[in-house]
Amino acid sequence: MGANSRLTIATHALAWMALNERSGAELTTSEQIAGSVKTNPVVIRRLMSEMGKAGLISSQRGANAGWRLAKAPEAISLRDINDALGAEAAFAMHRNEPSAICPVARGIRPALAPVYARVDDAVSRELAATSLADVLRDTLGVDGA
Amino acid sequence: MGANSRLTIATHALAWMALNERSGAELTTSEQIAGSVKTNPVVIRRLMSEMGKAGLISSQRGANAGWRLAKAPEAISLRDINDALGAEAAFAMHRNEPSAICPVARGIRPALAPVYARVDDAVSRELAATSLADVLRDTLGVDGA
DNA sequence: TTTGAAGTAACAAAAATAGTTACAGTCGTT
DNA sequence: AACGACTGTAACTATTTTTGTTACTTCAAA
Known about the structure:
Two copies of one chain form a homodimer.
Chain A: H1 6-22, H2 30-37, H3 41-53, E1 57-60, E2 66-69, H4 78-84, H5 103-128, H6 132-141
Antiparallel strand pairs in A: 1-2
Helix pairs in contact in A: 1-2, 1-3, 1-6, 2-3, 4-5
Chain A binds a DNA duplex through helix 3.
């Protein structure tokens, strides 16, 4: 798979929201975020919708609509974001069924499954160690601010 | 990206070779492996070519051609295979440059880069813990053999 | 010199992601 | 009650990546 930038875009969006709220804003719109990410607002709305279902953010509709964080930036980890996006495993099994006759072909998937599960666990653990607050701090700190 | 099955196919191929050699064979051909994986021999040859460049296997050309493992199955880890395939990072940055004006957009990539690097390290560590010999053992053990 | 397979280029097919357009649903404001 | 601004989605196109296929060249043993 091409490596996937969904986590990057989603984290960028939440970091923008966090900064916006810190500056006193109540709500953030998809258009504001799209301006920073330089993409189409619908792309942002799609990601936001998934994060809303996961309880990371909440939306307000009607006039004066937008999103707000549902948790403090310290309480949202990159793992939470990745899980919200329904991220798939790092490695996949064969796209097509291998030979039913060959013993290697029959046994290779059960043999690899636990290894791949451990890999995904390791990814989750690593992502869990970084919060949205960490990302925002490092993001703003780049300029020496 | 769709999750990528290249590591699965490459590992399947090497496991097949290891079993073939254990059964007394000197050489293994792409057609034999393709039969077990149920794919086109060229797909196998492409993967084998990359693993050959990484020194995991060696090829013999001419009549009576084929591949043989260049190391013992105990000395080849899934990490070696993954590295040989030039695996890309689990997560990618934005496909397009984000806004040059916005401080979040400017700082988010340097902030995420070390996190993503740690994730890739964790993946490598996890893959390094399993050898081709482990995979072959578990593969054949599935039937209780 | 014949032969079987590696090696590789070129291209088609399939799948996933990203980008775009369009429109219905919601709800303060006027 | 109508308006306006923005969410929520569906539908479609474009782009990128991976996989599958055909075809051809190179190689070395028999």
